[in-house]
Amino acid sequence: MRKLITLLIIVLILIPKKAEAQNNGAAAVAAIAGIAAIGAGIFAVEQMKEQAELTATQWILKNHPELTSFSLKTLDFDGKKLKDMSSVSVILFNVQEFQPQEKPELNGKKQVLFGFTSNGWVNENGVNFDKVKWYLIDESEWIKMMTSYVKVASGVNDSKLIKDKLLEGKIVNKGLKINSKIALPFFELTGDMYVVTDYSNDMKFIYNERSLGIFLKETNDLVQIGRNQIIDIHDFFFKK
Fold first, then answer.
1. Judging by DSSP bridges, how do beta strands 132-138 and 195-198 pair with one another?
2. Greater pLDDT, 89 or 201
3. What is the pLDDT of residue 89?
4. Orientation of helix 227-238 relative to helix 139-154, angle to 10°
5. DSSP 97
6. 98 and 71 in contact (C-beta within 8 Å)?
7. Fewer CB under 10 Å: which end of the chain, C or N?
8. Cα-to-chain-centroid distance, residue 43
């Protein structure tokens, strides 16, 4: 909403100058139409973000009644255009518990809620959250997932070694990085090469070039989590 207000202020500043320079009302009309379209797009994405956070909160309330005081936030809509959202295959929500008090501190258990989307979840009629499958994980499950992913991406099978290095570093494009050094390099695959591992009853993990692919067995959807999203999740859990 703040962005929309800023755009309207820009219109008020620019239109008189534009009209005076060209002595033509058409320029002003075109400027208004352009800014209005941009503003409408921003407003639509903001609405989508609010709806996504509301739906995610409702899912947690229904499926995890043990969570009685928590914060839920997503950054996946920030800086995105409306047309970009239709191609998003996973929405991430940071969830953290806190102790209710006069000035509560957000310092409780951390979890990440995945919203895996199916084709058509965004269409001309809006957002269909029936096409989103939810999956909540905590820190230990994340390490388990990343250990499995590093195994398939690097060929290293020592679980303890991988877990120890995950707690020290983070996953980047070329492998598992600790400080400025690649501790466990990943296979250098081309875009049409895939390495697959069967992670659980719900998922298969696929290593392909620079992303983590997750195949959802129930829906037969293959979704991709980009490297930046992996880093963001890891930082959320472990960055002090």
1. unpaired
2. 201
3. 81
4. 140
5. E
6. yes
7. C
8. 19
Is residue 223 within 8 Å of 116, Cβ to Cβ?
yes
The boundaries of the domain holding residue 41 are: 2-136
The length of the chain, given as a count of residues: 240
Q: Sign of the CA dihedral 14, 16, 21, 25?
A: positive
> Which residues, 6 or more positions from 84, have their beta carbon under 8 angstroms from its beta carbon?
none
- Nearest Cα to 38, choosing from 67, 63, 3, 2? 3
Whether residues 12 and 125 fall in one domain: yes
Shared domain check, 153 and 103: no
Interatomic CA distance for residues 178 and 51, integer angstroms: 38
Do 127 and 147 fall into the same domain?
A: no
Residues 179 and 143 in one domain: yes
Has residue 232 got a pLDDT over 80?
A: yes
- What average pLDDT score do residues 95-111 get? 94
As given in the structure block, the two tokens for residue 23 are: 């002595």
The CA distances from residue 123 to 45, 55, 67, 203, 230, in Å, are: 13, 17, 32, 26, 27
- Number of folded domains in the chain? 2
Q: Are residues 7 and 43 in the same domain?
A: yes
The residue type found at 187 is: F
CB neighbour list of residue 200: distance below 8 Å, 6 or more residues apart: none
Per-residue confidence at 123, pLDDT binned at 50, 70, 90? confident
- Is 148 found in the same domain as 90? no
Instruction: Write down the pTM of the prediction.
Output: 0.79
Residues 42 and 64 in one domain: yes
CB 202 within 8 A of CB 220: no
What is the rounded distance in angstroms from the CA atom of residue 209 to the CA atom of residue 231?
16
